[in-house]
Amino acid sequence: xxxxxxxxxxxxxxxxxxxxxxxxxxxxxxxxxxxxxxxxxxxxxxxxxxxxxxxxxxxxxxxxxxxxxxxxxxxxxxxxxxxxxxxxxxxxxxxxxxxxxxxxxxxxxxxxxxxxxxxxxxxxxxxxxxxxxxxxxxxxxxxxxxxxxxxxxxxxxxxxxxxxxxxxxxxxxxxxxxxxxxxxxxxxxxxxxxxxxxxxxxxxxxxxxxxxxxxxxxx
Length: 219
Ligand code: PEP
Description:
Order of helices and strands: EHEHEHEHHEEHEHEH
Helix content: 25-40%
Number of domains: 1
Shape: globular
Bound molecules: phosphoenolpyruvate
Distance between the termini: 12 Å
């Protein structure tokens, strides 16, 4: 399974800073690394168009993810961004069901389920369902990383649970870890067979750290 590294920039960086970081990351990545590892950046909605323009103009292989999507298709929903609008921007992935949105913005399973449907309608890969992310809440942004035994145990459990469901696709489903991934722990985590990649928050805002995390995957 091709591994994937997703940089979740959260509520950081304006579009000019985003372009700079994209260019730094692209410059520092080994040539053609994207043939072996999917590299995905998730900036704020306001930066998606600018980054997408740089990616298409410079023919970069880095892919984009949104950090969220509306549960609605269209209509009078002020401030929302739809899956159709994201699809038109060539956005390949979208993070849904992130614990920060659940705890700080009151998102529940019903809302997330609607969001999932909107993404699938537009063939955008949800980072949650089709890519299953194990993110212990206590490990997000805290510098505390889960133990290797814990990661193996939870991903193994999740894989067994999901693989019995009708929507499970062995070829396409990836199981990733997120929670204080850094260059100090990425080699051990990312080279586990059961780990198909990582969702990286804080460390993805630093191009050196992000590229080191990518480079810690043994090809
Ligand atoms: C995240 O945003 O999902 C995350 C794992 O953040 P951090 O790497 O900062 O813990």
